[in-house]
Write a structure and sequence with these properties.
about 240 residues; mainly alpha
Length: about 240
C-alpha cells in the first residue's frame, strides 16, 4: 500500500505539461466558439464587418488583443474615411462605413465570453486535475499564460482595471466551481469508497479469501477444523 501511495504522489513532469496544454487548449477552444456567437448576437454587425471583415468575426485578435476587452479604440485615424493620395476625399453618413467607430459594448461582450469560458473550464479541471489543492494553481496558470500571450500579441501588457477585474473574476469562478466539486468527490469517495471496486471484490475474491483463511486456521482446544490441511483425516489417523 505504501509503495502504491508513493507512486501516486510522485511528481510527474510529463503529466503536468500535458495537463497544462490540455486545459489551456480547452479554454481557447471554448473562447473561439463562444466569442463569435455572442458578438453576432449582441454586437454591432456593421462595426464588426468594418473592423474584422465579417459578422460573426473570425479573428484571433478578439481573443488575444486585450485592447478589445478594455474597450480601447486602437484604430489608426489615417485610415478613417476615404483617402486618395493622402487627402481625405469623403466621409459617409453611415458612421460605421468610413469612420471605423469602435463599438463600446463589445468589451462587455468579450468579458462575458471570458467568464463563460471559465465556467466551461471547470469540467476539465474536475476530470483532468482532480486534486482540490491544485485547482488554484491551474486557475492561475490559465490566466498567467493568457497574460503572456496577449502581451506578446499586442507587444504591451494589459492596462486598465477592467481587464484585470475580468481576469480575477475568471479565477474566482474556476476556484470556487472546480475546487468545490473536487472536494465533494473526495469526501464522497473517502466516506463510502468506490462501490464498483467493492462489488468487484465481493464477486471475484471473497471466495478465494475465505479459502485462504480456512487453510491457515489452527485447531483450538478440543475442536477440530475439518477443512484445514493440517487436520485432514489421514493425518489425524497417523497421529493416533
Amino acid at each position: 500500500m505504501g509503495r502504491w501511495m508513493s507512486k501516486v504522489n510522485k511528481f510527474d513532469a510529463a503529466l503536468l505539461v500535458f495537463q497544462i496544454i490540455a486545459v489551456q487548449s480547452i479554454h481557447y477552444l471554448s473562447l473561439s466558439i463562444i466569442t463569435p456567437l455572442l458578438l453576432h448576437l449582441f454586437g454591432n454587425d456593421e462595426a464588426l464587418r468594418y473592423e474584422w471583415g465579417s459578422s460573426p468575426p473570425c479573428s484571433i485578435g478578439l481573443i488575444l488583443d486585450w485592447r478589445e476587452l478594455a474597450n480601447w479604440d486602437h484604430g489608426e485615424p489615417v485610415w478613417q474615411g476615404l483617402w486618395i493620395q493622402g487627402v481625405q476625399r469623403g466621409r459617409s453618413a453611415n458612421i460605421y462605413e468610413w469612420d471605423g467607430s469602435h463599438n463600446r459594448s463589445r468589451g462587455w461582450v468579450l468579458a462575458i465570453c471570458w467568464v463563460f469560458a471559465c465556467f466551461v473550464d471547470i469540467i476539465p479541471l474536475y476530470y483532468l486535475i482532480r486534486k482540490p489543492t491544485l485547482i488554484l494553481d491551474f486557475a492561475l496558470t490559465i490566466t498567467g499564460l493568457h497574460f503572456l500571450f496577449t502581451t506578446a500579441h499586442v507587444q504591451s501588457p494589459p492596462v486598465g482595471f477592467f481587464c484585470y477585474g475580468v481576469y480575477a473574476l475568471g479565477v474566482v469562478v474556476l476556484v470556487v466551481g472546480a475546487e468545490q466539486l473536487a472536494m465533494r468527490r473526495e469526501l464522497t469517495e473517502g466516506l463510502w469508497g468506490d462501490k464498483s471496486n467493492e462489488q468487484d471484490y465481493e464477486m471475484s475474491t471473497r471466495h478465494n479469501h475465505n479459502q485462504h483463511v480456512r487453510s491457515h486456521r489452527r485447531p483450538t482446544g478440543l475442536g477440530l477444523v475439518l477443512d484445514s490441511p493440517d487436520n485432514s483425516p489421514d493425518k489425524i489417523r497417523n497421529t493416533q
